[in-house]
């Protein structure tokens, strides 16, 4: 698809205020490795979450400066130090939303999860902001179709943070051209569709907060280390093949096969970090202790509890809603001891972003 379809015209400015909530997401098939402009080296697939989200309000006021001009507030406090990242985002998307040069923006953002929890907020925050921008664009061009609205919101969010493309819709989304869905694209995420097995509609994700500090190596640095990585091409191929294998599993609800691929993907992602040059380790001793305890628990109980990992030390535990009782006791009694201050977040698969 040609990106020119996403270039809007200029339009007469209006006063407008809107608020959107966008969730975080957790990848089952991991995106790790990219090229300009923020395009993935392999397709990915994720659960859209529900409780871990960003709420963003934007007040658009027309101005005559003909430049991008904004203020940013986080939990009500003005944050000039957050501005350079946002400025880069606005500079990237300006060509697609040229009407933005006619506005002054006040952006008010807040997260539902603790700021220093080690949970990346870039996906949910870029998604929420992109939806606010698209909401105004839809006021300016009311003939806009819903499919275009969501695709362009995902397209803009992607230019802020790759995985943010997958934080617009739910419950499961693809990002990246793949062999199993003709509608898939490197430019924006697309929903899994109606063939998803019902067990995944409300799949649970408990995020064990092993390390709440900031990561020693950012995901931007990690993606860059895939350039020239000796295993890169095989990893991109493995991710594509894993995605093709996971889709029918998610259609039939075959949980043993699901667990195998999801854990394989998490460990393959971290294997890339272990073998980058320079190499690095984001897992902590407690990350490994949890993984071993999850494997033991699964063996002892045959309950389909599995883990996945983000680019960090925290562990996402994934399980069907029907097993909540016994798994919550297990987490509370055994796994919380491996978490920083005993903390974990209960979340589940969600339906995607919504207007607040
Ligand atoms: O969107 P980024 O640049 O923060 O990269 C996300 C990378 C992973 O979270 C590790 C994997 C993914 O697909 O979300």
Cα(first) to Cα(last) distance is 31 Å
CATH topology of the largest domain: Ribosomal Protein S5, domain 2
| Element-by-element helix/strand order | EEEEEEHEHHEEEHHHHEEHEE
Biggest pleated-sheet summary: 8 strands, mixed
Features:
Ribosomal Protein S5, domain 2; Alpha-Beta Plaits; 2 domains; 4-stranded antiparallel β-sheet; 8 helices
Written account of the structure:
The chain has about 350 residues and is of the alpha+beta class. It has 2 domains: about 5-195, Ribosomal Protein S5, domain 2, CATH 3.30.230.10; about 200-350, Alpha-Beta Plaits. It has helices at about 85-95, 120-140, 145-160, 220-225, 230-250, 255-275, 285-300, 325-335; strands spanning about 15-30, 35, 40, 45-60, 70-75, 75-80, 105-110, 170-175, 190, 205-210, 305-310, 315-320, 345-350, 355. Strands 1, 4, 5, 6, 7, 8, 9 and 14 form an 8-stranded mixed beta sheet that branches. Strands 11-12-10-13 form a 4-stranded antiparallel beta sheet. It has a two-stranded antiparallel ribbon with strand order 2-3. (3R)-3-hydroxy-3-methyl-5-(phosphonooxy)pentanoic acid binds near residues 44, 122, 161, 162 and 311.
């Amino acid at each position: 698809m040609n990106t020119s379809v996403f270039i809007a015209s200029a339009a007469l400015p209006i006063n407008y205020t809107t608020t959107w909530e966008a969730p975080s997401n957790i990848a089952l098939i991991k995106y790790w490795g990219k090229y300009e402009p923020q395009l993935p080296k392999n397709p990915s697939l994720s659960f859209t979450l529900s409780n871990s989200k960003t709420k963003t309000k934007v007040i658009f006021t027309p101005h005559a400066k003909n430049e991008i001009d904004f203020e940013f507030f986080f939990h009500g406090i003005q944050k000039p130090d957050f501005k350079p990242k946002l400025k880069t985002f606005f500079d990237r998307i300006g060509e697609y939303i040229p009407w933005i040069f006619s506005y002054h923006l006040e952006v008010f953002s807040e997260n539902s999860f603790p700021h220093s929890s080690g949970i990346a907020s870039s996906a949910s925050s870029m998604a929420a902001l992109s939806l606010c921008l698209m909401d105004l664009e839809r006021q300016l061009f009311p003939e806009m179709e819903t499919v275009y609205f969501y695709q362009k919101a995902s397209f803009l969010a992607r230019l802020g943070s790759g995985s943010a493309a997958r934080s617009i819709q739910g419950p499961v989304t693809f990002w990246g051209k793949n062999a199993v869905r003709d509608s898939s694209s490197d430019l924006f995420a697309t929903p899994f569709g109606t063939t998803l097995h019902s067990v995944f509609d409300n799949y649970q994700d408990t995020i064990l907060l092993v390390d709440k500090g900031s990561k020693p190596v950012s995901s931007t640095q990690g993606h860059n280390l895939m350039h020239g990585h000796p295993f890169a091409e095989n990893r991109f191929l493995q991710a594509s093949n894993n995605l093709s294998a996971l889709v029918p599993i998610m259609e039939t609800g075959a949980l043993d096969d699901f667990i195998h691929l999801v854990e394989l993907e998490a460990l393959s992602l971290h294997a890339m970090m272990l073998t980058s040059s320079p190499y690095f380790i984001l897992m902590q001793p407690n990350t490994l202790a949890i993984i071993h305890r999850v494997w033991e628990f699964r063996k002892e109980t045959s309950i389909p509890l599995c883990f996945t990992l983000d680019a960090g030390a925290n562990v996402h535990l994934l399980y069907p809603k029907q097993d909540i009782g016994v798994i919550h006791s297990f987490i509370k009694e055994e796994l919380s001891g491996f978490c920083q201050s005993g903390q974990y977040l209960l979340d589940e698969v969600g339906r995607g972003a919504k207007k607040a």
